[in-house]
Amino acid sequence: MTLKLGCIADDFTGATDLANNLVRAGMRVVQTIGVPDAPVPDVDCVVVALKSRTNPAAEAVAMSLAAARWLRAQGAAQLYFKVCSTFDSTPAGNIGPVAEALLAETGARFAIVTPAFPENGRTVFKGHLFVGDVLLSDSPMRQHPLTPMTDANLVRVLQAQVRSARVGLVDHRALAQGEDGLRARFAALQAEGVALAIADAVSDDDLRLLARAARAQPVVVAGSGLAIGIPALHGLAPSAAAAQLPPPRGARAVVSGSCSAATNAQVAAFTGPRLAIDPLRLAQGEDLVAQALDWARPLLGATPVLVHATAEPAAVQAVQQQLGAARAGALVEDALAGIAAGLVQAGVGQLVVAGGETSGAVVQRLGVQVLRIGPQIDPGVPWCHAAVHGGLHLALKSGNFGGRDFFERAFGLL
Ligand code: ADP
Asked: What are the chain's domains?
């Protein structure tokens, strides 16, 4: 296998979002959970999903370098470091330290950095990130529990994170000069000693232009947006074949641990048989995994079943007050992972999981390391296929993604 592109994502659902964009633009893509030790099928691109966004910087650097070395050993001439489209990070990193380390690893002296993804309302103008119509610093991201973003000036944000690199700006005027003009701007910045440059982009055309101008660069740092312009540079065009998965088999089930507004609406809209998992009963030691599996087994095959801990904010708060948020979360994740594994053992071959952390727990319990990325169900959420347990179709939905009828539509698509 010679990879056309090697990607390193700093979180799991971000990796899927990126993989989804690459598949839509015609690449055959596999997503791996960390650096795989299992064999990877012959594809155009591998996205290594890490969980490094909020780790100590040194740890994030070490994880990213291990992924970079593996991807380069598979022939990837360009590395794509996927960061959050709202540039989620702390003053300590990890976007800056990882980007610097990837430059050093590849011997590159310059990389563009852009979280822009206009389709999702993320645009960069004069180095400032907008979320919809407001600056990042005026968006709800300013109150994020782990990575509050209180400055929309990405040049300043990134400069604060790096050790020695200088951070510069490729602004919209440089983009207006076209591909050659952009390359000249890259060279001029490099001559001034700039190693990382925030790049403006307010449209898909801007992203495609940036991808073209940066095609010979060993490293790019971006949200999932820049990916729309890369497959075409390798002679690939959108095709159903890129998203082709093995035929579906087995029974259908949904396991939901997300309590987001979108997931609550999706659970409410589900019309098949459902079972709610009560965290307080889990805390009392009741074996709800066995109970859920006894409930589900006779139903499997006839219709999709739903097992959920999903609850409205007031109910979640009440549980968290009694158990603490961390303990409640861990109890529920563990139970839902056990239920997912039991369902697969009982013959489920098409499984939808709602919730980012919940998906992580389920994938780990199922021993999934390699996911082939298939067709998109809703923006950012594709069907995937894992060659475990006789072949398993998985849709891993982060909390806020997907329309109201996501669960039923997902099964309809297979
Ligand atoms: P999202 O993608 O919406 O953030 P996650 O799965 O990442 O969803 O996070 C949801 C967290 O809430 C998980 O840790 C899950 O175990 C926990 N959780 C789910 N249901 C409940 C509940 N009823 N009470 C308390 N915590 C819950």
From this structure: 5-239 (3.40.50.10840), 244-413 (3.40.980.20)
Secondary structure string (H, E, C) spanning the chain: CCCCEEEEECCHHHHHHHHHHHHHCCCCEEEEECCCCCCCCCCCEEEEECCCCCCCHHHHHHHHHHHHHHHHHCCCCCEEEECCCCCCCECCECHHHHHHHHHHHHCCCCEEEECCEHHHCEEEECCEEEECCEEHHHCHHHHCCCCCCCCCEHHHHHHCCCCCCEEEEECHHHHCCHHHHHHHHHHHHHHCCEEEEEECECCHHHHHHHHHHCCCCCEEEECCHHHHHCHHHHCCCCCHHHHCCCCCCCEEEEEECCCCHHHHHHHHHCCCCEEECCHHHHHCCCCHHHHHHHHHHHHCCCCCEEEECCCCHHHHHHHHHHHCHHHHHHHHHHHHHHHHHHHHHCCEEEEEEECHHHHHHHHHHCCCCEEEEEEEEECCEEEEEECCCCCEEEEEECCCCCCCCHHHHHHHHC
118-136 pLDDT per residue, tens = 998 999 999 999 999 999 9
Q: Which of 258, 263, 264, 322 to mutate to test the pocket of ligand 1 (most atoms within 8 A of CB)?
A: 258
Q: Whose CA is nearest to atom 13 of ligand 1?
A: 329
- Quote the pTM value: 0.92
Task: Give the residue, out of 357, 365, 396, 406, with the most ligand 1 atoms within 8 A of its beta carbon, to mutate for a pocket test.
Answer: 357
